[in-house]
Write a structure and sequence with these properties.
The protein is an alpha/beta fold and 308 residues long. The chain has helices spanning 23-34, 48-51, 57-65, 70-76, 82-105, 131-144, 163-168, 205-222, 249-265, 282-307, and strands spanning 2-5, 39-42, 107-110, 152-156, 175-182, 195-199, 227-231, 270-273. The longest helix is centred in the C-terminal third of the chain and has 26 residues, at 282-307.
Length: 308
């Protein structure tokens, strides 16, 4: 299974910054050690033209050269640096490559990504560019050149609502945005997705999985995708600092398994990104993400067996 990374770009964050930058390298190291069938590949940066499929030229330029409005940087939560700009491009590039690989092999991943708070002209919530939005539109353009109309489902199971993705695709019937998230959690001003499922603080495994089952049924009733982009946030876990939900390890794994099985049953290629994770213990976030890759590897193997 092809997995794309940009862990060589580490943001120079000030001491005490709450974003867990170290989790990406830790995850890459764990995957290399524990899942040797994974093919780790360095992500290429998204070009200006690719980014412009979902973002305004002025915003792209501002991030590229550091001229972006300081108020937007405060919303993003990262100080500007060349490494910040390059990492943002490569995080998008990783999801683009994962989508292309998913068409070829059934499933592929981005170690980072899931930057769903970024909208067309601004970022927010540790999100600079919206990787899922850019990748969805680029895959549609590439398939259109082959004479095919591609419909994309973005299944966002990060604990925070995908407001940027919802805003970018508002009124676009070729992309279905599904977000299952904490009702009272960030962002406090939500943007309407095609399907939003608000969960109460303290939501546990059974309640969450029931909501997921209903949401996937509703998605299928209303939409017929040819590609799934899955945001597999670790932050619904009970040990997350910012999550406020109470999913166990088993609950998170059951969540992932249900999404992968749903796509498998319909023969849909699936690209996934790791999205959020802010465990009180960094090791818990990384473990949740390793578990997701374990589920994905079984799905990838089923695809390879199908193709033989």
């Amino acid at each position: 299974m092809q997995v794309f990374y940009a862990t060589q770009f580490v943001l120079p964050l000030p001491p005490g910054h709450r974003f867990p930058m170290a989790k990406y390298q830790l995850l890459r190291d764990r995957l290399a050690a524990e899942l040797p069938a994974i093919q780790l590949m360095q992500a290429l940066p998204a070009t200006d033209g690719e980014l412009a499929l979902a973002h305004t030229p002025g915003y792209i330029q501002g991030i590229s050269d550091g001229s972006v409005d300081p108020a937007i940087l405060r919303e993003i939560g990262f100080p500007w640096s060349p490494a910040m700009a390059e990492r943002a491009r490569r995080s998008v590039g990783a999801t683009i490559s994962a989508c292309r690989a998913a068409f070829a092999e059934g499933v592929a991943a981005n170690i980072a990504g899931g930057t769903h708070h970024a909208s067309a002209d601004r970022g927010g919530g540790f999100c600079v560019f919206n990787d899922a939005a850019v990748a969805a539109r680029l895959m549609q353009a590439e398939q259109a050149r082959r004479g095919r109309r591609l419909r994309v489902a973005v299944v966002d199971l990060d604990v925070h609502q995908g407001n940027g993705t919802a805003r970018i695709f508002r009124g676009d019937d070729s992309v279905f945005t599904l977000s299952i998230h904490g009702q009272k959690n960030f962002p406090f001003r939500k943007e309407p997705s095609d399907l939003d499922v608000d969960l109460p603080d303290g939501c546990v495994d059974d309640e969450y999985l029931h909501a997921l089952e209903g949401a996937l049924s509703e998605l299928e009733r209303r939409f017929d995708p040819g590609l799934v982009i899955y945001l597999a946030g670790a932050d619904p876990h009970e040990g997350d600092r910012l999550g406020r939900l109470k999913l166990t390890w088993d609950g998170l794994e059951a969540r992932d398994r249900r999404v992968f099985d749903w796509a498998w049953e319909r023969g849909l290629p699936l690209a996934f990104a790791m999205a959020g994770g802010y465990g009180r213990r960094l090791e818990d976030t990384v473990q949740a993400q390793v578990n997701t890759f374990g589920v994905a590897m079984a799905y990838w193997q089923r695809w390879q067996n199908r193709r033989r």
